[in-house]
Write a structure and sequence with these properties.
about 450 residues, 8 strands, single chain, two-stranded parallel ribbon, alpha+beta
Length: about 450
């Protein structure tokens, strides 16, 4: 029995642990699609849209028929002194001791200027929520691209540093043997030791950053921060796929930018607020229809068949006409107009800022492509220089200082190329975001 229980507990623990860390393999596009469905910020943005739809219906429903029912019961502890023959038995009663009054009322709004404005505002509010969702999706997409690229950058850096450490350890070993035979100076050994120490330190740092970059990607994906995520794309393939000069020729349509749309939403909402304040000077018209029963008795007999009920009904119309507010409505309208002017100014400012952002993003993307080509050439040159200096050093015609300088130059060129590749990917994502024209890779 104990053995069976132990096996059962172990199986449950294994299943729980397995379910909490399901390795997933994702390309960049798959990661983007996954994040748009599971990123927590994106999920809440979708909920905001649903809330806006409910608010739109809530506003609409205020102008539709409203039915309310009520029932009141009164027990006169001290009798009233109105002489009424409730029982119609010829005996005068001094007021009924108990009474009950159930009623149903239908209310209908016939005209209200603020209701009309409210319907328009609800539609704009829904549009604001939808634009906010679009902006969130664009930002999530951009964040996933950056995080995915950072993981690839860390992975590539770790691999390159490990290869460099391996090569340098071999060089150091050979140099130590040459030194032990008296054919090399001790300084050469020390120079290589300094370089190797720096490489190992960078490797340790990059390995730690590798874990942090993966955890950041998991957060953007909307999964557990410690989940095992496998990236199927490579930095080189993504770089090649993201070199697309056609995007530089796209029209700079500011109105497609999501920030412009949001700023325009703000202007429209301010226009509606002006209309709302103006509508408060208009009359409102409403109607009601009421039906009720009145039952009176000295005892609680309201569930008896013999209980008598007197039915009543009424219909009414109410017209409310604003006449004089001591300038309050005018002040509110003027304040709304000032806020509208501010929103129009903000829209103009947003338009000019977006034009600059588009121009800057295009420039950055074009530079990133050019810089990537330049860094590839530089790496090729640095590799040849390092190879020549290594050959000269072991042939005894080159100094350890020159070798270390060539190695340091090579290591810098390697990292600069990786960063240039990432810059191509990120700058294209930035340009697509500001143009609001994301292109699947």
């Amino acid at each position: 029995m104990k053995k069976t229980l132990t096996l059962l507990i172990g199986f449950i623990i294994f299943q729980v642990g397995f379910s909490q860390d399901q390795p997933i393999s994702l390309s960049l596009q798959e990661a983007i699609d996954y994040a748009l469905e599971n990123n927590r910020t994106a999920i809440n943005a979708s909920r905001d849209i649903e809330a806006a739809k409910q608010q739109k219906w809530e506003t609409t429903a205020t102008g539709l028929p409203q039915i309310d029912a009520s029932i009141s019961y009164t027990n006169n502890i001290k009798q009233q002194f109105d002489a009424i023959d409730f029982d119609q038995d010829g005996v005068v009663d001094f007021g009924a001791k108990q009474s009950m009054n159930p009623s149903v009322t239908l209310n209908q709004l016939l005209f209200d200027g603020s209701y009309i404005v409210g319907l328009q505002s609800a539609k704009v509010f829904l549009e604001i929520s939808e634009n906010a969702k679009t902006k969130t999706d664009l930002e999530v997409r951009k964040a996933v691209i950056n995080a995915y690229g950072n993981v690839l950058l860390a992975n590539e850096s770790v691999e390159i540093l490990r290869r460099n450490v391996s090569v340098l350890e071999k060089n150091l070993f050979e140099t130590e043997k040459i030194f032990e035979n008296g054919l090399e100076e001790e300084e050469s050994v020390e120079q290589l030791q300094i370089t190797l120490s720096g490489l190992k330190s960078n490797l340790n740092k990059t390995e730690r950053l590798q874990n942090i970059a993966l955890q950041m990607l998991n957060i953007n994906l909307g999964i557990d921060v410690y989940n095992t995520t496998i990236l199927t794309d490579t930095l080189e393939s993504l770089t090649d796929n993201n070199i697309n000069l056609e995007i530089l020729a796209l029209e700079n349509n500011v109105e497609n930018n999501i920030d412009y749309k949001i700023a325009n939403n703000d202007k429209v909402s301010k226009e509606l607020l002006v209309k709302l304040e103006q509508s408060k000077a208009l009359p409102t018209l409403s109607a009601y229809l009421n039906g009720a029963y009145v039952g009176n008795s000295d005892e609680f007999t309201y569930f008896d068949k013999e209980q008598r009920w007197i039915g009543t009904s009424a219909f009414g119309v109410t017209l409310s006409i604003p006449i004089f507010s001591s300038g309050m409505r005018n002040a509110s309208t003027q304040r709304a107009k000032i806020n509208l002017e501010k929103a129009e100014t903000d829209l103009t400012e947003t338009e000019q800022r977006i034009k600059l952002e588009i121009a800057s993003a295009k420039s950055d993307y074009q530079f990133a492509i050019e810089d990537y080509d330049n860094k590839r050439q530089n790496l090729s040159l640095a590799e040849r220089i390092e190879t020549k200096n290594q050959t000269k050093f072991f042939e005894g015609i080159g100094s350890s200082f020159e070798l270390r300088q060539a190695q340091t130059q090579l290591y810098s060129a390697q990292q600069e190329l990786l960063q240039a590749m990432l810059d191509v990917i990120n700058s294209k994502a930035t340009l697509e975001t500001v143009l609001n024209t994301p292109i699947n890779n």
